[in-house]
Amino acid sequence: MTHTPLQGFPTLADLERVAAERVPDRVWAYIQTGAGEERSLEANRAAFRRWSLRPRVLSDVTSVDLRSRILGREVDAPLFVAPMAYQREVHPEGEEGVARAAEDARVLSIFSTLSSASLEEIARAAPSGPRWFQLYLQPEFARSRELVERAERSGYSALVLTVDVPVLGVRDRQEAGGFAIDASVPTGNGPGVVPPARAPSFRGPTYELPANAAANWGILDDLRSISRLPVILKGILSLEDARRAARHSMEGIVVSNHGGRQLDGAAASLDALPAIAEEVGSTLEVYVDGGVRRASDVLIALALGAKAVGLGRPILWALAVGGGEGVREYLSSLSRDLATAMALTGRRQIAEIDRTLVQRIP
Amino acid sequence: MTHTPLQGFPTLADLERVAAERVPDRVWAYIQTGAGEERSLEANRAAFRRWSLRPRVLSDVTSVDLRSRILGREVDAPLFVAPMAYQREVHPEGEEGVARAAEDARVLSIFSTLSSASLEEIARAAPSGPRWFQLYLQPEFARSRELVERAERSGYSALVLTVDVPVLGVRDRQEAGGFAIDASVPTGNGPGVVPPARAPSFRGPTYELPANAAANWGILDDLRSISRLPVILKGILSLEDARRAARHSMEGIVVSNHGGRQLDGAAASLDALPAIAEEVGSTLEVYVDGGVRRASDVLIALALGAKAVGLGRPILWALAVGGGEGVREYLSSLSRDLATAMALTGRRQIAEIDRTLVQRIP
Amino acid sequence: MTHTPLQGFPTLADLERVAAERVPDRVWAYIQTGAGEERSLEANRAAFRRWSLRPRVLSDVTSVDLRSRILGREVDAPLFVAPMAYQREVHPEGEEGVARAAEDARVLSIFSTLSSASLEEIARAAPSGPRWFQLYLQPEFARSRELVERAERSGYSALVLTVDVPVLGVRDRQEAGGFAIDASVPTGNGPGVVPPARAPSFRGPTYELPANAAANWGILDDLRSISRLPVILKGILSLEDARRAARHSMEGIVVSNHGGRQLDGAAASLDALPAIAEEVGSTLEVYVDGGVRRASDVLIALALGAKAVGLGRPILWALAVGGGEGVREYLSSLSRDLATAMALTGRRQIAEIDRTLVQRIP
Amino acid sequence: MTHTPLQGFPTLADLERVAAERVPDRVWAYIQTGAGEERSLEANRAAFRRWSLRPRVLSDVTSVDLRSRILGREVDAPLFVAPMAYQREVHPEGEEGVARAAEDARVLSIFSTLSSASLEEIARAAPSGPRWFQLYLQPEFARSRELVERAERSGYSALVLTVDVPVLGVRDRQEAGGFAIDASVPTGNGPGVVPPARAPSFRGPTYELPANAAANWGILDDLRSISRLPVILKGILSLEDARRAARHSMEGIVVSNHGGRQLDGAAASLDALPAIAEEVGSTLEVYVDGGVRRASDVLIALALGAKAVGLGRPILWALAVGGGEGVREYLSSLSRDLATAMALTGRRQIAEIDRTLVQRIP
Question: Are B196 and B269 contacting, i.e. CB atoms less than 8 angstroms apart?
C-alpha cells in the first residue's frame, strides 16, 4: 500500500491535533470556535451520545451499497461537504482540493459565497460535481442575482440559501484569536461580495442591522424568479420554519445550528432533526449537519430521518493535513467505516436504515 | 475605533480572570463565593444549560428594539444592575461609576443599603436614573424609615426590600478569604446602618437571631405607611411566597437565590421562575437574577416569564477592570449581543419574546 | 473570642484535608474508604445534590428552636453521632472525647461494640448522655447478652442492632491502606469481643460465613428477652425490611448503607429514605445517616422524613484535628448553620420541617 | 497464608495498572481498546452505574451457595470466561493457564477460534472443563466444519457462534497501537484459520465484504447438520434477533456488544439485557458480558435476567500479572466477593436472585 497523506494519524483525534499544528493560530480560531460560550458547539456532539445503535446479526451483508439519491441525483454516499468559507486559509489547495476530493468520491459538496477560490475556479477543478452553491444574500439583490447566475452557468445544481445569518453570531473566541470575517480576508467571488456582519454597536434605542437581516419568506419568490435551480434552506431548527419551507415548496432544508457558530444556546442540530424529518420529510428532503465526526454519527442521523449528512470541521482538518488528497482519504475512510457500521446493523442499502436502528440511551 | 477599557479582554472569561488579578484577594472572596458548598451558586449556571433556544428564520429583523417598560418607565433594555454592596472595594469609582454607566445605557440599576457611596452621592452621579433603592431592614424601624425617606428624596423610584436575609448565609469561603460583612467595611449611608448578621453561636436550646429576622408580612404595611414608592420583594423562590406578594399588592418580585450566597442548596433562580411567572406574572412584575452572564441567558429568562433580568458579578468584573466605563462597555456589549440573539430568533421587539423561544434540552 | 481547635480551618474541606495530615495513613484508609469501587460512598453524596431547598420569607424567625425528641427524650438538635469503631486510633481522646462533646451539645451519640474505650469508660466520661449502644452480634449469644447488660447498667438508653453486616464488606482500599478489622486493633469492651469478619476464601461449592451471619428476625425476640431497652435496627434500605421492623415492634430504624462500606452498589441512604419514612414513619422512628456534611443536608433529610440525622466521617475529622473539643466545635457550628438554614426556609421549630421544604432538581 | 500472584495488588485498579506494565504496548492496545471513539466500551461500564442494589437483612446467610447450572451442567458460580483471542500474547501460559484456572474454579470457560494454543492443547490442559468452543465462521464452510468436529472430539460441550463480526469493527486505537488482527499474529488452530477482516477500502459504489459476512440465519441449520452440540449465539443486542434465536431453537445467547470492540455506539450489553431476558429467558438461556468487573456487577446482571455472566478484560489482566495462577486467584476472589454480596442482599442461593434485588438510581 502506498503512502497516503493521513497515514500516521490513525484516529480522528490525531487528525485534529495535527491540523491544529499545521494551520496558523488565527485560522484555527476561525475553524474550531463557536458562538459565545460554545454551548451549541458542544451540544452538537452531546446530542449524538444520547442515542445508541441497535446491531442486527446474520443478515448476509457481503455486499453493502452506500449509494443514495440527493434531489434525484445518485451519489456514492449520503454525505455532503458542508459549505465553509475561506478554505485557502486552511491549505493552498483550498476549495479546489476539496471539490476534486468530493468529486472523486462522488459525494456532494457545497461551496460558500465566501470561498477563497471563485465559484468558477471550483467548477473547473471538479466539473462533474455534484456541487451546490451556498448563497449569502447580498445587500443589493442584484448582487445576489449575479452570484446565482454565475453558479447556474458554472454547473452548480442547487442553491443553498443560508437563513440563519441575518446577522453574524457573537464569536468571542474567534475574535480573541485574531480572525475577523470582513474584507481583510480575501475571497474569490469578487471584491463586491459582502460577508455577513456583526450587529453594530449600540446607537440609540433600536439596532439597525445589516441589510440582509431584512430577508423574509418573500425572498424565496425573488430567488425563484431568477433561477430554476432547486432551493435548499440551510439553518432550520424549528418545526414551524420547516413547515413553512415545505409550504414554500423548497426542495430541501438543512437542519443546522451553523456548527454552533451563530446563536449560542441554539438547539443541537440532531435534537431538532427527528420531529422535523417526521413532519416534512415526505414533502422535501431533510439534511443535517453539526457534530458529525464518525460513521456511527452518520448512521444515527440517517436513522433519525436525514436524507444526507453534512461534514464540516473534519473536512478542514483533513484539508489542513493533506490537502485535497487528505480530504479524499478522509471521505474514503468514512465511507468504509459507514459500510462497516451498516454491515454491523444488518443494513445492505441506505434505504434499509430506519428508526429502529437507534434508541435513546436510558 | 478608540481604545476602550475592556478592549483586549474579548471574552467574559477573560474579563473574570483579569478582574481576579485587579481586586484584592479578600474582596475577590466577597465577590465570587457562595454559601456553603456553593451548590446554589453552581445551580444558577447549570439551570440555564438545561434550556435551548429555538432560532427562527426569515423574519425581517433589520430593526431590533430592546426597549421595555419596567414599572411603567421605558428603559433601553430589559436588564437591571442587581444591588451589590461595597462597590468601592472593587474600584474607586464604586457605585457612582456603575450608576453613571447604567444611566448612560438607560438601564435600571439598584443600589444597596450597604453601598460604599451614600445613596445621595449615587443620585447626584446619575440623577436621571432609573434607580431603585434596596433596603435591608434595620433593627429599629425608625432607621429603615430614614433610609426610605432619603431614597425617596433622592429620586429613587422604587424600594427593593430584600426578604431572603433574615440572617446572613453561611459563607465559609468568603470568611476563609478574610472578608467579613460587618462594621469593618466602610459604607456610605451612615455609621448607624447595620448590615445583616450571622446567626450567633449556640447559647442554649434556641437561637435568638438578629432583629431583622423578626420581619413578617406585616412589615409591608409598615413600609406602605411611610412611602408611596412601589415596593419590590427580592429573594422569592417559592410559589407560595410569590402568591402572597401578589395578595399584598407588591408591584414586583425578584426571583432570586441571592447569587447563591444565602441558603446553600436553595433552588436555582431560573428553575423557580417559570411557575412563578405563569402564576403571578399578570398581577405583578416578575424579575429574576442569578447566573446571568450572556445574551442567551437573558433571552432564556425573558422567555420563561421574566420582565427584566438582573446582572450581578459580571458588573463587578467590568467595574474592577474598567471602572464605570468598563461597566458601560459591558452593558453596551451585552445589549448588542441581545439584539443579535433576538435577530437570530426572529424577534424584533421584547414583547415578541415568548415561551416558544425555548425548549428543554432532552 | 478565644482560640478554638478548628479555627483556621473554616471550611469542611479544610477540616478534611487537615485531618488527613493528622492521622496515620492506615487509619485514614479506615476512615475514608468505602466498599469496592466506592459507588455507594459517592452515591450518598450525590443523592443530596438531586434535591433543592425551597426558601420561605417574612416568617418572623427571630427565635429558632432546634430541640427535638428522640424516643421521647429531648435533645438540642435532631442529630446523632453515628457509631464508629476504634476512635482512639483517630485521636487519643477517642470515644470519651466524642461522648463529652455530644453531651455538652445535648446531642445523641451512639457508640460501637468495637469502641476503643470500654462502654463503661464512655459512660463515665459523659454520664448524662444521651447515649445509645451499638451491638454487633457475637458468635455466642451469651456474649451479646453480656454486652447488652453492661450497656444497660451503664445507662445507655437504647440498643442499636447493626443488621447490615452479616459478613464484612469488601473493602479493597481500606485493606490496601493496611488496616484490617481484626484482633490486631485494640478495643475496649474486652478481649472476647469479636468483630465482623470477611467471607472466608472459597473452600468448596458453598461458603460458610461467620456465625453472626446466621441472624434472622428471630434474633429480635432473643434481644427483647434479655433487655427492656428500646431496639433500633441499623442498616435498613428496603421497604420490605422497614415494614418487617415495624411488624416486629422495633422502636426505630436507621436507614443506612453503612457509609458505603458494606455493599458496593447499595442504594444511597437518602434515596431509600422517603418511601420508608412515608410507609413506617408513623409506626416507628426513622433515622438516616450517610453523606451528611452540612446543615443543608440535615434539612433535606429531615424534610424527607428522618426523625434525626446521623453524622459520621465529619465527626472523625473534627476529632482528629481538635479532639473532643473539635467535635464540640463542629457540632456547635453545624447547629448554628442548621438554625440559619431553618430561618432561611421560614421554620422556627423542627416540627415545621415538612416535605414542602424540598423539591427535586429538574 | 502463602504468597499468591496477585498479592500486593489489592484493588482491581491496581491489577489493571500492573498488567499495563507487564504486557507489550501493542498487546495492551489490543486488550484495552474499543471501536471508534470507545462509546460502547464506556457505555458498558456506565450501564451498571445506573442500577443500585437493595440489601436485605436478617436472612440467615451463614451458608451461601453459588452453584448454578449452565445448559444443565453444574458449575461453582454463574460466571464464565469470555472467549478472547491470542492469550499467549498476554502471558506464555495463555489459554492453557486460563483453562486450568477455570477448571479448578469449576467455572465455564470459552475459547476462541483465534486462540494461541490449539483447541486440543487447551482441552488437554483442562480436560474436565467445562469448556465451550467459540467459532468464527470460516470463508469455506468445510473449514468451519473441521473446527467444529475438532472441538467436539476434544470435549468442548457447546458451540458459541459469534454473530456480531460479519466484518471487523473499526478499531482506531488498536491499530494506532500497532496491533493488527491478521496472519501476523500466531494462532494455534492451524495456519488455515482465517480471522475476521476489516472492510476493504472503497472500490466503487458498493463494498464487497469478507466471505463470512454472508452468513444469515440459514447458517444455523448448517451448523446443526454437522454437530449435535448445543449452539449459543454470541453478540445479540436486539429483541428481534433474540426472538429469532429462540425460534431457531438455539440453546442460548450471549447479550454482548463484543466488549465495545465492534460497533461504536452500539447499546451497552447490560442496557439490552432486561427486555431480552424477560422475553426469551424462559425459552433459552441468556448470558451477558461487557463491563463486568466486580461482584456487584455480577449481581446486577443476574438480577436483570442473566443466567451467567461473562468476564473479559479482568481475566487478561490477571493472566498478565500472574499467569494461570493469577486467573485462579481472581476467580476465587470474585466468587468470595459474590458470596459476600449475596449475603448482604439476603440471598443464599443463585436461584433467589431476582428483579427485586435491583432498582434504577433515580
Answer: no
Q: In this complex, does chain D touch chain C, defined as having at least 3 beta-carbon pairs under 8 Å apart?
A: yes
Largest CA distance in chain A: 68
B362 interface with A at CB cutoff 8 Å: yes
CA distance B359 to chain C (A): 14
Phi-psi sector, B94: left (phi>0), alpha (psi -120 to 50), beta: left
Counting as contact any 3 or more CB pairs under 8 A, the partners of A are B, D
Half-sphere exposure of D315 (CA within 13 A, CB side): 33
Q: In chain C, what residues touch D362 (CB-CB under 8 Å)?
A: 50, 271
pLDDT at position B339 over 80: yes
Interface of C with B in 116-145 (CB under 8 A): none
Q: Please determine, for residue B215, whether its predicted confidence score (pLDDT) is greater than 50.
A: yes
pLDDT of the residue at B42: 98
Closest Cβ opposite residue C58 in set B173, B215, B268: B215
Q: Which residues of C are catalytically annotated?
A: 258
- Cell, residue B280: 403571578
Q: What is the pTM of this model?
A: 0.96
Task: Provide, as residue numbers in chain B, all residues whose Cβ is less than 8 Å from the Cβ of A50.
Answer: 362
CA dihedral A148, A154, A160, A162 (to 10 degrees): -60
Kindly state the cell numbers that stand for B360: 428543554
Residue in A170, A207, A266 closest to B53 by CB = A266
Select the residue from D6, D340, D350 to test the C interface by mutation, using most C Cβ atoms within 10 A: D340
C2 close contact with B: CB closer than 8 A: no
Chain D CB contacts of C206 below 8 Å? 63-67
Is A248 catalytic? The answer is: no
DSSP per-residue codes, B110-122: EE-TT-SS-HHHH
Spatial CA neighbour of A61 closest among D207, D222, D162: D207
Q: What is the pLDDT of residue B3?
A: 65
Rounded distance between C-alpha atoms, residue D335 and residue C200, angstroms: 11
Assembly ipTM: 0.96
Answer whether B50's CB lies under 8 Å from B300's CB.
Answer: no
Name the percent of chain C lying above pLDDT 90: 91
Note which residues in 159-218 of chain C have CB less than 8 A from chain D.
163-164, 166-170, 172-173, 175-176, 198-202, 205-211, 213-217
CB contact under 8 A, A55 and D262: yes
Q: Do A271 and B345 touch (CB under 8 A)?
A: no
Residue with cell 431584512: A214
SS3 C325: helix
Give the contacts of B86 (CB within 8 A, at least 6 positions apart): B27, B30, B114, B115, B116, B185, B187
CB contact under 8 Å between B262 and C63, yes or no, is: no
Q: What angle do CA B272, B276, B277 make, to 5 degrees?
A: 115
Encode burial over A131-141: b for 16+ CB neighbours within 10 A, e otherwise. Answer: bbbbbbbbeeb
User: Do A291 and A44 form a contact (C-beta atoms < 8 A)?
Assistant: yes
Grid cell in block for residue C295 = 446543615
Angstrom distance (rounded) from CA B283 to CA B277: 10
pLDDT tens digits along D20-35:
999 999 999 999 999 9
CA dihedral over C23, C25, C27, C28, signed as positive or negative: positive
* Minimal-distance CA residue of chain B relative to A161: B58
pLDDT in tens, C152-190: 999 999 999 999 999 999 999 999 899 999 988 999 999
| One-letter amino acid of C321 | V
Instruction: Give the nearest partner residue to A57 out of D43, D50, D164, using CB atoms.
Output: D164
Instruction: For residues A163 and A244, give the distance between their C-alpha atoms in angstroms, rounded to a whole number.
Output: 13
Distances (CA, A) of A261 to A234, A264, B36, B88, B339: 14, 7, 37, 38, 16
